[in-house]
Input
Amino acid sequence: MNPADPVRLRWRCLPFAAMQADTLYQVLRLRSEVFVVEQRCVFQDMDGADADCMHLMGEQADSSGRPVLRAYARLVPAGLKFTEASIGRVVSDPALRGTGLGHALMAQALQMLQSLWGLQPVRIGAQAHLQGFYRRHGFETASPVYDEDGIDHVEMLRP
Output
């Protein structure tokens, strides 16, 4: 089995206050690596919402058994970003793209959101070029394209 296989990940979901410093560091590092450096987007990732969200992490043990963050999503309660609950900061390790990890992450995020807050509509602000990815998880485009930090986005809703 491929070591990057998402099935081998251990999934954890924690409130912000329960995250240890090394876990928080890995989360912020991965988010910055992709959303700031790779996408060349200067924006304030730490937007003040993290403390009110749940944090889903897919981790894989390294050769010494230490957990390494491979996938992450922020689960946002209804009323914080949108009227509906939301999933944001969806990111996977760039070295593991093409392995199905992103789809495993979204499936886990939707399952965990429902487990935490019950079955309900979910609204996301998605990068426009990822609409096909999110459609595979039941989301439909719910707004015109808009610019967010220099990147085309759309709102998408999963009823």
Q: What stands out?
A: The first strand starts at residue 10 and ends at 15. Residues 6-115 form a domain with the Aminopeptidase fold (CATH 3.40.630.30). The two ends are 36 Å apart (CA to CA). The longest helix spans residues 21-38.
